[in-house]
Amino acid sequence: MHQTALWANTHHAESAEILRRYSKITPEVMATMVRSTYGDAPRLEAPMLQPVIDVAVKYGTTAPTSAADLIWR
Question: In the chain, where are the structural domains located?
Answer without folding.
Answer: 1-42, 43-73
